Amino acid sequence: MEHIIAIDQGTSGSKAMIISEKGEIISSHTCPFPSYHPQPGFVEQNGNEIIASVIEAIRQALSSFEAAGNKKISITAAGISNQRESFLLWDSAGNPLTPVIVWQCKRPIDICSRMQKQGLDPLIADATGLRIDPYFSATKLLWLIENDPDLAVKIKSGSAYFGTIDTWLVYKLTGSYVTDFSNASRTLLMDLDSCKWSPAMGDTFKTRGLHLPEIRPSTGNFGVTAFDGIFDKPIPITAIIGDSHAACFGEGCFSPGTVKATMGTGSSVVMNTGKRTRSQHGMVSTICWSMEGRTDYALEGVIVSCGSTVNWVLEKLGLAANAAGFDALAESVPDSGGVTFIPAFSGLGGPHWQMDRKAEILGITFGTERAHIVRAALESYPFQLMDVISAMEKDRSAAIKWIRADGGITHSKLSMQIIADLLKTEVRIDKRHEASALGAAMLGFIGKGTLKFSDAEALLEQAPYGVFSPGKAINGLETARRLWNERVLTK
User: Fold this and answer.
1) Partners of residue 466 on adjacent β-strands
2) Rounded-to-integer distance, Cα 458 and Cα 443, Å
């Protein structure tokens, strides 16, 4: 029995999981690390702290693996999934020139507004599939170039190296300078049709002279590493892929019309489209997943606030003690009582793309109770998801086939039932709750040659799932949805 180390490098921590070729999770450990906020709207991390967190997570996961009687020698490869749009720059010696600029960072809002006024949206969307938005890497990179003259000189002179987190990890662990289609597709610098760096985007974002990694499919040999001496001899890294794309593979999105929704702090909703589809309804086009000989494209809807809405209501308003109490309070009233919660704490993402909008709680009367506000907050994610799915269906001129979900919000039975009723389709949830790591592991086994694609497909179909079916006819849902549409579309 072979095993693989799946590294799921996220925004708040690095998780290492040891997974068998049958898809069994044998051991797991998460090592958190901090984010830094030097100014309002700025979000940064330390690249070396990320590396250290990955090494420690692997060390602890391996300790548990061996304590259970397993042999380290059975671990034959590693696969990486990672936070996507976050990036940093470094010099030829591998020393960081910048902090990690995290995907959540809003520093380039003014630059985005300027570029939109210049009419660059159509050019950028056609080349990259993306929008001009702080979410994506190159808008933040342009801010660095315009605000750090010394860094701009280093870039122009060819002494700066760019990388998203997958590239940084692989470079530091193996010396290889590579990325994959999925991560490159989130930078605003890759041509989505050719899956190569775009000279036109290099000119648009002033990156001429900047070293960019080689772009490859997500499977293959990306170099070997002993993970800072943890292993007696080096093992290959055989898959690298952005976390949301890894979840697509882990959830079995293998044909057009299949959808996965990762419901974490924010939410990434991705529909496999097979071939590239140019959105006319506020979605972005991106890579779904890739391997040697096959690349599937996708439409993605970015929902900025998902679990963060629940956390804000719990921490700032104190309306419930914990997430379980939140759900119970929401179910204690028959409906939201005419209250609409618009969670635009950092603007609204797709399909609305209202960067400057602020959060609002609308429709409060003397009859409003705290349970109504909690219910409205809980409904806000399903309503945003419905907006995204409706836009995707318009772009494809076809209904979705099914939706599979992962992330913290899947623990809310009321949320999942609302989604099933709104979409009129089954919502399936992998009970292991590790779609990104499993996707990276299965792709890693394929990259090593341990599994064929058909083997991974069969294993993922056999996963233990919970299912929410439509038809419960939740009270007040139609009225709440109508109010959502009216109130969101007024601005």
Assistant:
1) 429
2) 13
